[in-house]
Specification:
Blueprint lengths: L5 H7 L5 H18 L4 H4 L5 E3 L16 H4 L2 E2 L2 E2 L3 E5 L8 E8 L3 E3 L6 H4 L8 H29 L1 H19 L5 H14 L3 H11 L6 H25 L3 H9 L2 H7 L7 H6 L3 H14 L6 H16 L7 H7 L1 H28 L6 H10 L1 H15 L1 H21 L4 H28 L6 H18 L3 H7 L3 H16 L15 H5 L7
Antiparallel strand pairs: 1-6, 2-3, 4-5
Helix pairs in contact: 2-9, 2-10, 2-12, 6-7, 6-8, 6-22, 7-8, 7-9, 7-11, 7-12, 9-10, 10-18, 10-19, 17-18, 17-21, 17-22, 17-24, 19-20, 19-21, 20-21, 20-24
């Protein structure tokens, strides 16, 4: 069957111009909006608090008091959160039995900021699992629904999936801000990511499918920068909002406007062609060329028309392309390796994000810094991917990221060195993450691309689900989280050499093109 060179057609319609800019603005807004699904990092974070000693509280709601060491056990310079000494006399603030402690049920919080800890009474170490469970449930929503959204995207289109996911995710996020109880909150934490699980992946794939081969790295960098901007916005919003309920409303309310803006985004030309919708594909191409000020040759329409006749005759052969993908040993091995690598990447990436708020008391500054470090990482990723290829970039960034995590453990006594090495770890893992995304997009065929992408991403959510348990691991052994990050990064770096090199390769439309992608590089 004659091969349709869509990359050449996309280039003839204008490789980058007004059309791509107009499409990328709402897509970047979608990417920023998708970040807010991780707001549990602040909404369900643990806070500093101590027992309320009623007979001693001469300055209400003040965390540190002069008499505190007489009434509450201390661990170094930190007062116990849930224990106080037994009082000898309820009328005085100085007579306590220091060999006898009691559990308290009222608390004074260090900062005037409300999380679900205060609203739902999730206090003391025995309830800490309820806070970490929020992040696990969040990732569980994606784990359950990512394959479904991938199927819907490949069946009904990228645009359809993004619009539905954004709208339903907005509703779920706003309802979560109204939660009257912990389990109501948990239910909508799950629904938020379950209903909106295809937002990021759908927007990412659509963004890459509307540009030609030479612009894919640039397109990837733009999308990743939008994601980093979303994380910074999340950190700043959490810093400025005293209440988690207000925070969620501020973050999710713009979702309605974003949904409306997506109606003006065209469908992926590659998807339209893969579904034999050649007339619609021609309309999008024609619109692209007009907006970019480029004249589209008549031969393009003739080529689409000829391919339409050819593919209509063989349409029945492509009813279930994913089953054909599984029959290919090469593609099946890629799916398995990609899934494992995604697990390691997600666990390390999100684990470092969550662990960042435990580095010091400046949780918001830490979070913003660790996400700002992604900006230079994306630019370096683009340079190295285009110069050395996807495979080498993925492998070396994983190995260097693992080495940086090991160094954090070796430099525990030097605070600023710890921060620097921690940022280096996030820097290299970010390069791994962005490289993995573009590699996973480039090495699978169009007809099953989003579904396979979703399968790998779904497996990766096993890493996201376990990442929120990092605070619990740190309580068992302080260095354990970073040791696990290092091991997973090293193993992924080694396995990356089994991926094909997709640099300068056209996006494969058929299964045989994906299998032989190493041989079809431009």
């Amino acid at each position: 069957m004659e091969k349709l060179h869509l990359d050449k057609i996309l280039t003839s319609a204008g490789s980058w111009g007004q059309f791509q800019t107009r499409v990328y603005v709402p897509l970047c807004c979608v990417i920023i909006f998708s970040v807010f699904q991780t707001s549990y990092i602040f909404v369900a974070r643990d806070t500093k608090y101590r027992c309320k000693i009623n007979q001693c509280e001469n300055e209400p709601d003040k965390y540190y008091q002069e008499w505190l060491q007489n009434a509450v056990p201390f661990n170094e310079d930190t007062p116990s959160r849930c224990l106080h000494y037994q009082s000898q006399n309820n009328d005085t603030c100085f007579d306590f039995f220091k060999n006898e402690t009691r559990t308290c049920h009222e608390f004074i919080f260090e900062k005037n900021q409300t999380t679900i800890v205060q609203d739902f009474g999730i206090t003391c170490d025995e309830n800490l699992w309820k806070l970490t469970l929020a992040g696990t449930i969040n990732a569980g929503g994606e784990l359950v629904c990512l394959p479904l959204t991938g199927f819907l995207s490949d069946r009904f289109g990228r645009k359809f999936t993004i619009i539905i996911g954004t709208f339903l995710g907005t509703i779920a996020g706003l309802l979560r801000s109204l939660s009257p109880s912990y389990y109501f909150y948990l239910s909508f934490e799950f629904l938020d990511t379950a209903l909106g699980s295809g937002i990021y992946s759908g927007a990412f794939i659509l963004a890459l499918e509307i540009v030609d081969t030479k612009r894919r790295s640039t397109a990837n960098t733009i999308i990743c920068l939008a994601y980093a901007l979303g994380q910074v916005i999340l950190g700043v919003a959490a810093w400025l909002c005293p209440s988690w309920r207000i925070l969620l409303r501020i973050l999710y309310a713009p979702g309605f406007l974003i949904t409306l803006s997506l109606w003006y985004v065209p469908e992926s030309i590659r998807w339209l062609v893969s579904k034999n919708k050649f007339e619609e594909a021609w309309e999008v191409l024609n619109s692209t060329s007009k907006q970019n000020g480029v004249h589209l040759e008549r031969t393009v329409l003739d080529e689409l028309s000829q391919l339409s006749k050819t593919r209509t005759q063989s349409k029945k052969e492509n009813v279930v392309p994913f089953t054909k993908v599984l029959k290919s040993k090469k593609l099946l091995l890629r799916i398995i390796l990609c899934s494992y690598t995604w697990i390691c990447c997600n666990f390390t990436y999100y684990g470092l994000n969550i662990h960042s708020v435990a580095l010091s008391d400046d949780i918001y500054i830490n979070f913003i810094l660790i996400n700002l470090i992604e900006v230079p990482a994306y630019f370096l990723a683009q340079v190295t991917m285009d110069r050395f290829g996807r495979k080498k970039t993925l492998s070396f960034s994983f190995i260097l990221g693992g080495a940086a995590c090991i160094c954090v453990n070796l430099l525990r006594t030097e605070y600023w060195l710890v921060i620097v090495m921690f940022l280096c770890g996030k820097f290299f893992i970010t390069i791994s993450y962005t490289t993995l995304y573009i590699l996973a997009t480039e090495m699978f065929p169009t007809k099953s691309r989003h579904f396979i992408f979703a399968i790998c991403s779904m497996c990766g959510r096993l890493g996201s689900m376990t990442a929120p348990q990092v605070p619990l691991l740190g309580r068992l052994f302080k260095s354990l989280p970073l040791i696990i990050f290092s091991v997973m990064a090293f193993t992924s770096g080694v396995l990356a050499y089994w991926f094909p090199e997709t640099l300068n390769s056209e996006l494969p439309d058929e299964i045989d093109e994906a299998v032989n992608i190493d041989e079809e590089r431009l």
